[in-house]
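Go through this chain for my students:
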Amino acid sequence: MKQRVITAIIALIILVPLIIYGHRPFIVISILFACIGLFELLRMYNTNKGTIFEVWAFIFLIGIVYPKQEMTLFHWTFTKYDVILLFLVGLLGIMVLSKNKFSFDQASFVFFATVYVGTAFYVLIETRMLGLNYLLFILFIIWATDSGAYFVGKFLGKRKLWPEISPNKTVGGALGGLILALIVGAIFHLVYPFPLPWLSVIAVSLVISVVGQIGDLAASAMKRHYHIKDFGNIFPGHGGILDRLDSLLFVLIVLYIIQFI
């Protein structure tokens, strides 16, 4: 417990100023965290085929995360979608050239991991560039969901939500987290109103809370499948980047799809 508290305090001292300031320092730390997150997934899967495929993945990860919709190389202009397609074609080409030493299964995982992490951190940067209030709103809703789920689940939770994946989560806790998230979302809109009607803000709060809990369960499912406790150990007592940001990354992608960001 002491180690968790010390790690949390140090992380807050370093990260809070970067989040508040934004701009280039936030972009740099986001790209760094994205690289660490991808490394955690690749290590979890254990491709065990050398570093060339990982180098290929990290190059395209940076291309996906970098906060520009279009990038120019020589006389060609590439969109994010072009970068992802080029990455896919490159992985399939490597599979052929390696004579299946780098298998389709491995290529599929590397593609999924890189696009998932890259897209999520790209949207994270876009969210901060849109405004500090947007990022804080999302974080507060996720934290409220976690807190509500913990306390309500501890005292009132009886029916397990998904015991095979996360034995400590309960239906009562999930509902408690959802209710607290809606309350926090409403209070945030009162203090720092968005240019949106009340119903939209409540709907977005609902989406963040529900999707955040799904993202947490999805991360737990992956760890269960690969028989690991944590994705990493960069934060002693807390795990890795993906352990701390599993809900947030999942939420950001969905919010980008529904055009809240």
Observations:
- The longest strand covers residues 166-170.
- Residues 60 and 87 are 7 Å apart (CA to CA).
- The chain has a mean pLDDT of 89.
- Residues 198-225 form the longest helix (28 residues).
